[in-house]
Amino acid sequence: MQIFGITSQELFGQLLLGLINGSFYAVLSLGLAVIFGLLNVINFAHGALYMLGAFLALIGLTQFGVSYWVALLAVPALLALLGVLIERLMLRHLYKLDHLYGLLLTFGLALIAEGTMRYFFGISGESYSVPEELAGGINLGFMFMPLYRGWVVVAALTVCFGTWYVIERTSLGATLRAATERPQLVQALGINVPVLITATYAGGVALAGFAGVLAAPVVQVNPLMGSNLIIVVFAVVVIGGMGSILGAIVTGLGLGLIEGLTKVVYPEASGVVIFIVMIAVLLVRPAGLFGKQA
Asked: Cα 212 to the chain's mean position, in Å?
């Protein structure tokens, strides 16, 4: 069977690739949305933190024999600690200033992280092997699905909707939102607001680290992997609505599929289709698909 002049196996293969890319878009844009939505910080270092997550997993495996499954838990925790240091030592002094100051600070941190990794590892990239438990694939009849790529989608969706549920449907999430919107009132109730704010930034950074570990067996681990992706992720956040948790998830997955389908129909446009969608959405709805209109 042929669709758009190609076999159904090729079509579904491209859609699967789009869904995998969309999973990374969703996790990364979710971290950006959490940090911006709750802290009003445009975290341009997010791509570099994603890159550091992949490198920490690689270093753990090659230098210390740390397995993929351990890295999947340990790397986000380590990057969360780094996020605590960044928030405590730098970002907290900028909350009352214009967004531009936070953007410039995090952009500078991204350049430092990228330059450091380029100095030690070069730019050629290194491979991270797929864990043995997820090697191989399943024949679905209409296509062959690698097990690891299926795992990426499942893990990303679980983390994304788990994060959304915690922030939007639990008392902890309500407290976080209140602490960022009415900090004096929440502080008066005996809640340590600075700790909540620090934990929020650390959580957003941990999401970037988690995405980096997920990506390590799929892409070449190199210092440029974050900078190559961050502009697309910012476009996803803008389309979904700045600060919208659900918007980041749904838009990330949807745009990944659109990108995959574009590679089938008109491959030349696959690199810009997300930005075309962004322009169209901003013309019709400047606040984004899920954002609140001013």
From this structure: 8
